[in-house]
Amino acid sequence: MHKVSGFFLCFICLPLLSFFSSNPGYSQEIAPDKVKTIFGIVPKVAENPSNPVTPEKVNLGRYLFFEPRLSKSSKISCNSCHSLANSGVDGLPTSIGHKWQIGPRNAPTVLNAALEFTQFWDGRAKDVEEQAMGPMLNPKEMASTKELVVQRLKSIPQYVEMFKKAFPDETDPVSFENAAKAIAAFERTLITPSRFDRYMDGDLSALSPEEKEGLKTFIQTGCISCHNGTGIGGGMFQKFGLVHKVSWLQDLGRFEVTNNPADKYVFKVPSLRNVAKTAPYFNNGHTWSLEEAVKTMGYVQLGKNLTDEEVKKIVSFLGSLSAEPPLQVTLPNLPPSTPQTPKPMP
Amino acid sequence: MHKVSGFFLCFICLPLLSFFSSNPGYSQEIAPDKVKTIFGIVPKVAENPSNPVTPEKVNLGRYLFFEPRLSKSSKISCNSCHSLANSGVDGLPTSIGHKWQIGPRNAPTVLNAALEFTQFWDGRAKDVEEQAMGPMLNPKEMASTKELVVQRLKSIPQYVEMFKKAFPDETDPVSFENAAKAIAAFERTLITPSRFDRYMDGDLSALSPEEKEGLKTFIQTGCISCHNGTGIGGGMFQKFGLVHKVSWLQDLGRFEVTNNPADKYVFKVPSLRNVAKTAPYFNNGHTWSLEEAVKTMGYVQLGKNLTDEEVKKIVSFLGSLSAEPPLQVTLPNLPPSTPQTPKPMP
């Protein structure tokens, strides 16, 4: 397992933290190459050797991402809860699915999700390929079945052609697993560089003075214990409420997957890329304000009472993690159903 | 009122019909300029002098079209039922709205809607500007209120800026009516030329021989009595079941708006542009097959039992009305909410 304890992390980050707090040459400006060692610049595409990202697969995946016929009702697509017009989220505390059922957890953004070390809040899927299958089959989400998905797709000649092109070496390319693979390949292209990457790449003007102050505070406060790597998070599990209990937290998190008592209240550390645009926050969308979310994290994870000034600076830095240039997604033109296509079941 | 009786129409079209059936020079090839007199080539933009289509307004309208915060739940946008990935429809018999309520009528495509002489199946809105207000306020659809829409929009600085630019001469530009005007302006750009327009413009190779046969059949059968003009429909009201009663029809149509007994079962004649991609058909999505829909129309409207061959030809022609080049819509990047933004109410 990839699980890393809080202690272990602090052990890793300690040298970095002490570097930044003790280095006499370190004042306002943080050397981008040092920052890059903590985080790293996003790749153009989050590659996966076992699911190569080809143009044909990405194109098919884009169609399927917007395809409501993958759901039982033919109403809900991936994009319904991971809206690419809305930074990859639905902006709701927890999502609305089949027959308006309200789900238990906040829909994480699909942007940069492929960079994360595991998928879902509880890490029950190892990558986006495995993740993409989940919502289609979840009775509270798209409420479909593998058979229904395949039947619908096979009934539409344009999709059959697209699957053949995306999986040219397979004898039966239209499969549930390949649908998920194509969606995942598309998601692997949904990587959003930001001004922060330009900064790490050496462009000192990419961050404002306040954002640089915020970055320093983010590092020195210890946020980087968990929020590190190219995703600025998304690289480990962590207990929510490591130092102080989270009063409203009911969700047992990863424990529900492993049944290991040590995993109670443990969640994947979310990526902070685009965080300024993906409210509300936390596993159940409990908190709408990014300021409040930062303050909460400082207290329950690090045992620190951050001042309003520190919070303001950190939030300012987090704003530099929003996609820039803005993500440009062109809608597909979904092919029509045929008489063989199973009808919507709302 | 724009209502035109079936008799009056036949009177108008008779000379054209007799021209096509008696003209000795008329065999397979129909002279495009004659065809153009019945239909007409779509404009690039469906202008409205009282709501000028400016780039700023169209851009704002594109944002608002995809904006779920216009709905009470913050889940449903215009695009939810008029999906621009799906030829402007949801592909359901009747739409699913707030709290999964199932509406009474089939969602018509938003593509080319601005070309039609009136809006909604029953013509209760005179243009897309008026139409755009309806779903936001309908308790079964987006279930919002004017106040909530304005409160949400005014709470988001980026929208305030965009409204100022779209309505530069107004002192209080962020209004419910202006939101509808902006959405309408965007819709006025959702015009989809097709191969049929190229044909009418003189490119004889734009239609296949079977499609030309279908066009001839479409004209000679009398479909053009109602389906004429640039929308190939969308220009008049008509009783559904003019000659023969429609066995399954319950909806009283325009009667519900006017209370005039003559308006029972009267509906707006829908545009046939993109019809091959906007199943299911009729006011309640009763019929999934375009062949069946054509056969039904021939019988109940014209009293004709079309042969399978005739139906096939007409359907072939109708396929030439699909958008070409395909519509290319780039998603907006919706601005984040602020602490002042009223929360979702699912």
UniProtKB/TrEMBL annotation, chains A, B:
GO molecular function, one term: cytochrome-c peroxidase activity
Record key words, sorted: Electron transport, Heme, Iron, Metal-binding, Oxidoreductase, Periplasm, Peroxidase, Signal, Transport
Domain Cytochrome c as annotated: residue spans: 56-164, 209-322
Main subcellular location of this protein, as a coarse class: periplasm
Cofactors named for this entry: heme
Residues where heme c 2 binds: 223, 226-227, 297
Extent of the signal sequence: 1-27
Binding site for heme c 1: 78, 81-82, 98
GO CC term, one of those recorded: periplasmic space
Subcellular location: Periplasm
Modification after translation, per record: Binds 2 heme groups per subunit.
Manner of cofactor binding, per the entry note: Binds 2 heme groups.
Designated name of the protein: Cytochrome c peroxidase
Taxonomic classification: Bacteria, Pseudomonadati, Verrucomicrobiota, Methylacidiphilae, Methylacidiphilales
